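Justification of resources, computational component.

The compute hours requested in this renewal are based largely on the per-chain cost of generating structure records like the one below. Each record pairs the submitted sequence with a full structure-token output. That output is archived, and it is also reused by downstream analysis tasks.
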Amino acid sequence: MLWEPEWRVSVQPTSKPEIVILYDASRSTETTDAILPPSLDSNQEVVTRKNWIEQILTSDYFTALKQDEDNRVFELPFSAPPENADPVSSSLAGTDIYSAIETALEDHPHLRAIILLTDGDWNTGTQPVAAAQIMRSRKIPLFGIPVGSDRRLPDLDISNVTSPTYGIIGENVQIPFTITSSLARDVRTIVRLRDIKTGKERLKNITIPAGEDYYDSILWRLSTEGSSTLEISIPVTDGELVSKNNSREFTISGRMESIKTLVIETRPRWEYRFIRNALYRDPGVQVDCLLLHPELGAGDGPGYIEKFPEKLEDLQKYDVVFVGDVGISENPAEGLTLEQATLLRGLVEKQASGIVFLPGPMGNIFSLTQSPLADLIPVVLDITNKSGFGGPIASKLNLTTGGRRSLLTMLGDTEEDNPDIWKSLPGFNWHAPVIKAKGGTDVLAVHADKSNQYGRIPMLVTKIAGSGKVLFLGHDSAWKWRRGVEDLYHYRFWGQVARWMSYQRNMAAGSRIRLYFTPERPKPGDSVSLNANAFDQYGAPLSQGELYVNIDSPDGERKRISLNKEDETWGSYSGRFKITQPGAWKIRATIGEDRAHSTDTTLIAQGGEIEKTGMPARTDVIEEMTRVSKGQLMEGDTIKTINKAINALPMPRPLESRTPLWSHWLTATCLICLLASFWIGRKLNGTF
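The structure output for this chain reads:
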């Protein structure tokens, strides 16, 4: 046994060695960028990758290989799109090189080599190099033949449209989009947004930089209630070879909405009076005012409440809360108490409401920095100058890059008019003592004249706080925007603020469940975060009970998830699910099995195709696979040597089965049995 004997069985193959030719049949092979080798076409015509593969496989290069009697040759396509499939299935079809090689290895045990014709643009399955490692362990080389150009075709592609789920009828909606250019020059063109049903359209002039991603947005005003299908498109430009990705369709719903706001102030300064008027006269806004005058007490009259809502069911109805020059006070008639500040923070973070900070010369906002609202304030204030800065010369706001793109600052009917409108607005003489914006905020406008060591003084700042939104306006002269134009810009600005802040909160609102989700326009593979607030029959946050969400996918499959309770005080729940296909996902939220008070909504997953034409070939993927498997990369006229390279390979060795006798369990068993028999025999013989 010390010589390590083995039992070896050699099995001679009963069939010829096998050569498998795998060729790519995915949708990306429709790209027209493949140049025929000079030996096949002296003019080196540019054809589709699919046509190139067909001509190569029928050429003399492979004819001689197929007629070779020493090998059995198999031609196998892979990743072909399903025939007569629905749009959802077609969009999910991709290229899986690993599975194609794995299947060939399983179905052909006597492989001598694999020849792979592909553009290397894999997008599903395991990394192809893993298949090459398996081939190396089995001593089967891979001959890779790349198809197509490794440079992208000249093309303009509307690669993404992130439209909101809904918009308010009569108000502008901002439609962001992304255009990817692979052209070698800048392109001046037109973006067209069109309602497919009515034919109504809107145009915007843009300039797309060469070879870059271009981000922009276009405004659209909804005029009808219900769902509308819109198409965004750009014309085909000179030199562009792929035209079908120049347009995208999406849906958006129009709603008549009632937004509930609460305005809290101390002294009725001009800013407060005109904000109240702007909201009060907006037909889509319901406003309550709480005036905590330090000398006269709480305000009274139409549209006023006498005290801060004491019950959560009364407070949770407000979508937006405006906090003016109000501070923290132990007396509820003179300011906010710490308990009320805690409730306002919970309303924003747990129930997706919005809060607007409007500081004033009294400097009461500094007491808010010592309260639970401190983390919501998006700027750092100068505590050495609580009354702020004033002067006889009016200053103006300058929009930042983010401000020029934001819907909040869109005072004109078109993006082209907006910069001129902001330049024409009256300025302000007083502003809050702001040092800088905090991290994680968006600065939309800055002081046009003043700056410090951190740059221009931020005047209009927004941030996300939990599920809600925060806005800070650092001056108290927005009411002056009425000069010469009356309510036009002032009312529009505050109306947009109210709608922007309440948007997510009202995505899907029922009588007892409020549901909102991110992202709004997911893609296959994205995880969607669901957040919800549930209430009992009296309107108070739900303290007992389970919240379920039934999800119907576009192909009719249904599943149910239970949302996790996040905060019992506010009745907030959360959960996640994954988008597996494009189309309309129907979502229904219920408290237990109570379907009578369910909340229904539809989530639209963008249907971008996984397999795209016009993308560059990935020769590096094929080269790595041939190197790992100890094969050969064949390009151009070297393809004609494929038969010679295959015949130079050693013939497959006979399959061997080796059983190590020295370490086999049967050997040990036999030794034990022999020794036991010997010992028993000695005992029976009387030998000790």
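The chain has four domains: 18-150+614-651, 156-255, 259-503, 508-605. The two ends are 28 Å apart (CA to CA).
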